[in-house]
Amino acid sequence: MAVMSVRIDDKKRKLLKVIASIEGKPIGAIISELIDDYVSKNKKKLNLLSESAEIKEIMALSEMSFSDLDNEEDEIYNDL
């Protein structure tokens, strides 16, 4: 399982922590549920793109767009 570091506003983090505590869930489980919901709602977009002959070009563009999120600061989590 990979580790991902996400920066969010302190107020949002505190609210999430309170809600997670009330529900008796770890914050990671809540985030995982939110990601699952988002992916599920947007799967049609992936299906449409995968039918396209340009999918490799689009994927290459998206990799470049998110390359700034892959930084040395988060490298410490790779070995966890």
**Main sheet makeup:** none
Large-scale geometry:
extended
- Write down how many β-strands occur, each being a DSSP E stretch of 2 or more residues: 0
Helices and strands, in N-to-C order? HHH
Radius of gyration: 16 Å
Q: How far is the first residue's CA from the last residue's CA? A: 10 Å
Helical proportion? 55-70%
Helical stretch tally: 3
Q: What's the pLDDT, averaged over the residues?
A: 80
Proportion of beta-strand residues = under 5%
Ranges with pLDDT <50 over ≥5 residues?
none
| Main structural class | mainly alpha
Explained architecture:
The chain has 80 residues and is an all-alpha fold. It has a domain at 10-64. It contains 3 helices and no strands. The protein has helices at residues 10-23, 27-50, 55-65. It is extended. It starts with 9 loop residues before the first helix and ends in a 15-residue tail after the last helix.
Give a nutshell description of this structure.
Helix content is 61%, strand content 0%. With 80 residues, the chain is mostly helical.
